[in-house]
Amino acid sequence: MAYEVTATRRRPQRFEDLVGQEFVAETLRNSIQSQKIAHAYLFSGPRGCGKTSTARILAKALNCAKGPAATPCGTCQQCMEITKGACTDVIEIDGASNTSVNDVRQIKDEVLFPPQSCRYKIYIIDEVHMLSTSAFNALLKTIEEPPAYVIFIFATTELQKVPATIKSRCQQFNFRLVPIEKVKSLLGEAAAEINIKAEDEALYWIARESTGSIRDAYTLFDQVAAFSGDEITYDKIRDKLGLVGVDRLNAIFESCAANKTTEALNQLDEFLQSGISIEQLISNSTDYLRSLLLIKNGITKEALLGQSQDRYSKKVLDSWSPVQLERGISLFLQLYRDIRYSLNPRYELELAFSRLSWLSQYVSPAEVKAAIDKAQSLLSGSGQPAHASASPAGHSAPAGQFSPAQQANPAQHAAPAQPAHAAPSTAQFTHTVAPAQSAQSAPKQEYRGATLPNGLPVFSALQNADGGYSGYAPDTASPDDAPVEQAVPPEVPDPFDEGGAVPPQQTAADLGQDVTALKDALISDLKIQDIMLATSLAGTSGWTLEGDTVTARVDSVYLQKQLESQKNQIASHLTRLSQKTLHFVVKLCLPQHANLMQMATKEVKILCDTFRGTLVNVVKKEDGQPVKKVTSDEDTDAADAPEDMEITEETENDESF
Prior knowledge:
It is elongated and about 120 Å long. It is 43% helix and 13% strand. It is of the alpha/beta class.
């Protein structure tokens, strides 16, 4: 007997033999049993999933001598002829080879003649989407109202290319890819039929490579069986087909996870020297990282992993997080797209494994944002550190909070006096402030942490020996809530305060009467929340308080406009500090004999220096019309320029702003 490939030998002959298409099989069986047979069917789906086989089974079921029957006998003359493809009343047409309108016209002429030996004349047109537009249009009327003895069965892998006019005249059935477990089971049965032993790992690999197509799985199985002899093993497949294998992938990825770039590149060279192709290595590496990501997410199904979970390196799993594994997968996916246009694909592959060596240092944008948000919360004083929480009795309270004992009697927990100049060390600040709710008479309480002059707590900072700050940390207290002796750093001059002196602590009532202290408290408050606004306020002078209005004087038009735009925000801060409603007003006070033109020229010069621009001309306006241009190279006395002169400037790139 001539050799028959596994895909042909194991072609389904009954609806019960269809694997993975239970919905299609059950629907067609019920239609035959109830005698509700359509005149046209459209089967669509991926390659190798049973569309043509289903069409043949349907033809046998309709033309069986004992039928129409949901299960054809397979032994009558009609069933045997259809199985062999020799039945004259069941015509299979390749749509890719018969695309013209003339081929369709021949079909229209043939349908006029009834079947010779069967009950129905059935046309099976495979790859029907390849027909031309004219051919489809010629079929429309025939498909819509064919003779009672004619049935059309169309099969296609690209349903979107079939015209809607054809779809609307057919019953549509969508075929699906077959699950890996079922494909593996079919391969095991095929191996048992020909007395070949097969490892489960090898069958899983074949099933995964087929991507759900049974015909592809049988074809690859025949190829593997040809060189495997009496037993199919994964080691033979790996050696013969040039696969890397999970063991060797464990070795190279362990080197990458340990940041051993030299070892990883040497192992990569060994793989390539042994004949493994670059494309195959990229594919195997991507599958490996994908399996690690699935394991990280708690998926251990062997059909998805392709291997047993125990075969994957625990060192690699412990070294990389799911986000880092996602980054590694995207790296290889992009590499596969890039190598076709690369100067040398090997260089691209070596670069990818070199990047994997520092994958453990990769931080995703989401993690960066979370860190920035946390730092912003700490710096602004709007929230507590992630590890700061309410403490039980006998333990320390977080920064800016009181323990139960401190809340009960805050006076007993006041901090002892500290020396004026303690030695520089990693220490925390302890300040005594009055709580906001009792402005004048309430007893003072201790906040374990730095505080602003307005009484708001700020998180403690860790100070270096050179006076700088290395980070923030929650304060701690002794278990019995006793005051802790803490070193106070030496006083550092503050650029926002005159003379570098820190303003004394004052109550809200004092701040409401002393405008100078109110200014200092406001600037100290804004140094953390809005440093730019604090800098602008530091440039003001001559603060006065008249009624409920605070007036500040500036000598710059720019500074005046900037503070005017934020006066509501400043007023809200002043109201909170003084605990009474205050308004904020900015007045421009220029020196005597000040020249606006000269000041504008100065500001333009600052603008040019900041943005590396160049002053190109000065235009004098008269009645809105430019009458004279004076270049910057001319000796122009800005002090003598009239006030209606407009100064224009351009950058080095000739872009004016």
